[in-house]
Amino acid sequence: MKNIVVTGGSGKAGRAVCRHLVEQGLNVLNVDTVPSSDPVCPFYRVDLTDRGQVMDALQWTGGRDHPFRSFATPDAVVHFAAIRAPDLAPEDVTFRNNMMSTYNVFDAAMRVGIRRVVWASSETTLGLPFTPDNPPAYAPVDEEHPMRPESAYALSKDLGEEMARQFHRWNPDSSFIGLRLSNVMEVQDYDRFASWQTDAAIRKWNLWGYIDARDCAQAVRRALQVDFVGADHFIIANADTVMEQTSAELMAEIFPDVPLRAAVPGHETLLSIDKARRVLGFAPEFSWRDGQTPGGGA
Ligand SMILES: NC(=O)c1ccc[n+]([C@@H]2O[C@H](COP(=O)([O-])OP(=O)(O)OC[C@H]3O[C@@H](n4cnc5c(N)ncnc54)[C@H](O)[C@@H]3O)[C@@H](O)[C@H]2O)c1
């Protein structure tokens, strides 16, 4: 793995991914509609809903203006571009943008000979927002939990996972690794965590989960490196919750009837990352508890 296309590399998670992969010595091309505020690698302005533009971006032997046209074929594409959450745009706009972008990226990757796709699915596929009226079937939630998309956004990710399975069936030597990301946090976001501590209900919607953008980048790197052929999906969250209350106390207070399938000592995540640990070797390195301040992060 040397030459990597990152879609959505100007976004919150994509910026961390681009920086991390560049620091690993990889050639990274950021493909997005807007330039990055952290321009660590070349940028190519592409609307991923336009199939021709996606083919051009992924075919590095292509156009005269292409930043990396001297390389043959990228080794992998990391597909992070999307309208990143429900309620940011009308449902059909989110659905169209995310579905067409994902279809175009998966399809173009296979056509140009890229055999590894790592892409951002979402924790929302698991039934978020969880409430006492819409609780998880059990906790910690894992990859066996029923898929219960509750928005066009979550549906676009659920169907993206199905697309990945079918693209892999059509291209048996391909690998599609979907990362069901929890809520992405940068160091400066940790300032807000204190305001959540007095009310366990505020962050109940995703079982108090989060993913540090740098650990998200680590998950991408491991997904690029792992020896794997197929289409599979992994919950990617930090090892702890966003709360000072223990995980068992949180469940007892907000979701007393939800069965706990495994012990959750201390602040252990209620979004299980056992599969990501086991298969990808994912090992979160950061926690909001480390007392980092903006600009002074570890
Ligand atoms: N932020 C979260 O908490 C969260 C949680 C779970 C999953 N995710 C997923 O992770 C990925 C990255 O999220 P993020 O927080 O960095 O989002 P973000 O909004 O910060 O970045 C997304 C980037 O995608 C680009 N983009 C969107 N549509 C595009 C298109 N048609 N063509 C080209 N570029 C396009 C945007 O310009 C933006 O730079 C997304 O797929 C999102 O759905 C995010």
Automatic annotation (TrEMBL):
It holds the Pfam family Epimerase. Residues 4-226 form the NAD-dependent epimerase/dehydratase domain. It comes from the Bacteria. CDD domains: SDR_e. This is NAD(P)-dependent oxidoreductase.
